[in-house]
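Page 42, continued from yesterday. The earlier attempt failed because a stray header line got pasted into the input along with the sequence. Redoing it now with the clean sequence only.
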Amino acid sequence: MKLSEIKEILPTLDNVEFQLENGTFVPEHFHVTEVGTVTKHFIDCGGTIRKERVVNFQLWNADDFEHRLKPSKLLNIIKLSEDKLGIEDDEIEVEYQDTTIGKFDLEFNGKNFVLKNKTTACLAQDACGIPTEKQKLNLSELSNNQASCCTPNSGCC
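This time it went through. Structure tokens are written below.
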């Protein structure tokens, strides 16, 4: 989800709720402790130099059980970060700590924001010699017209 998308969604909501892919909700007393831009400048295993930039939201649970982040407050935090930090309309990455700090993509399911699990990947599979995924066929799709190299009682088995 891009920053512009969350800015369009927030005014339509009564509450801001985040949910993990497994259905577990981030406790409703969470804080958004950071909004910023994270830039990653790196070289992949194939030697290609790459640069990625995301808008980072950090969610944090405190012992402030009366805290509730309203959509207008989060929208104000986003606008302030755009004005003061020059944040652009990039994809949002959310940091949230469960057993360790996780990084998540963000989606909206019509009611809640969903923290989507991220995975690692090789960006230079051709340079690393990683084979492409083999085509999967059903045995029923194979032609019966192919001559068998081995027939019963031929002695080849």
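Notes: The CA atoms of residues 88 and 139 lie 51 Å apart.
Reminder to self: strip header lines before submitting.
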